[in-house]
Amino acid sequence: MTTERQRSTDAALRERARAVIPNGMYGHQNASFLPDNFPQFFARGAGAHLWDVDGNEYIDYLCAYGPILLGYKHPTVDQAAGAVQDAGDCLNGPTDKMVELAELLVEITPWADWAWFAKNGTDATVYAASIARTATGKQTILRARGAYHGSSPTWIAGDREIPADGTIEYDYNDLGSVRAALDAAESDAAAVMVSAFRHDVGIDQELPTVEFARGLRELCDANGLVLILDDVRGGFRLDMAGSWAPLGVDPDLSAYCKAIGNGHPISALMGRDSLTEAVAATMSTGSYWFTAAPMAAAKATIETMLEIDGIAHLKRIGNQLRDGWQQAADAHGVGIRQTGPVQIPLMLFDGDDFTTRNVPRAYRFAAELAERGVYLHPVHNGFLSTALSDEDIAHTLEASDEAFAVVAADFAD
Ligand SMILES: Cc1ncc(COP(=O)(O)O)c(C=O)c1O
Q1: Could you report the per-residue pLDDT of 306-357, keeping only the tens digit for each?
Q2: How far apart are CA 344 and CA 363, in angstroms?
Q3: How many whole angstroms from 232 Cα to the centroid of ligand 1?
Q4: Where are the beta strands (DSSP E) in 171-288?
Q5: Which residues line ligand 1 (CB under 6 A)?
Q6: How far is the CA of 121 from the centre of ligand 1 (A)?
Q7: pLDDT reported for residue 275
Q8: For residues 134 and 280, what is the distance between their CA atoms, to the nearest angstrom?
Q9: How far apart (Å, rounded) are the C-alpha atoms in residues 158 and 164?
Q10: Which of 63, 353, 367, 370 is the least crowded, having the fewest Cβ atoms under 10 Å away?
């Protein structure tokens, strides 16, 4: 089922980009990290499908690295944003949409009393750390080893392997290591920062244990620390009330971005009344943080997700995909590991090793899928959208069966 794919427009754009943009592309969306047949430039998206600049179509399992939750160009969301855009998006201050969105978020998040908005996940995680520092008068943030919270000096010291000043690392799902990090902070700990689940790139994902989540809550309460949940990646895909709601553990601050506005640029921080004074005392603003259209889009995204029970749909198709991949891999004798929530799928291949960047099976599998019209990142977790249909999944599994056959043949012992 492979089709001959044109790449000439993409190649020409890469060439032009190299002349005027450092390395032709910035960030981890740089296609040079992907198999050779992956496009860098895209032309359009509709529902669960994406077209590159050469007109090649893909069923999409990356969703713009997370933001697309209801599918590309979702009519309800885009109409809500468009209507506001027509009236005026960037004004001297916010519109009523900011209040409406905050009211909706507070309504669906039982523990939270307020919401605050910005543009990127990093804005929200950095501001969360600043609020915790203001509230406690202390500086050190305890955070999990290898966890990504944004590209800011608050979290990374240039080189991703070096933790930033003012942070001490613990190991995810290991309360003992959190206690050790607390001791190492020598009474200067302001907060524990924790991701909704462990999703460091290239390694098996790990869900939090209930004991770990509850233990963090208790440790924060006992020591006067702020518990910050980084829900940028999981938020609105795992649970509409926050990704730790099913665990029964409430944070003090929760950072959202990615899926909240179905591709419209907005992030949010939610928090408790006890931190309201610290918010007032901690400066925050941004040129575009008050634009109204993304707020209307976020409100429409959340309302639509609630209306269609989007989480249930994501879990249903996520399980179909996971079961189908496992069956196909087993049938071809290919060893794989699928970890983390099914809505945010990750498949890694036995025999590959991301720590040495030696992942030929994952690259081969993703390349074979791309040739068959399926876009799946080889090592970064994927993201599902509610636009994925049973037909899309069936096509994907058919393509995957052929791709596993190629991997089995290429990497036979
Ligand atoms: C868990 C987590 N936190 C924070 C961020 C940073 O978000 P942004 O890239 O929108 O600044 C990301 C981005 O991938 C993320 O996955």
Answers
A1: 999 999 999 999 999 999 999 999 999 999 999 999 999 999 999 999 888 8
A2: 19
A3: 6
A4: 189-195, 226-230, 253-256, 267-271
A5: 120-122, 125, 148-150, 195, 230, 232-233, 257
A6: 5
A7: 98
A8: 10
A9: 8
A10: 353
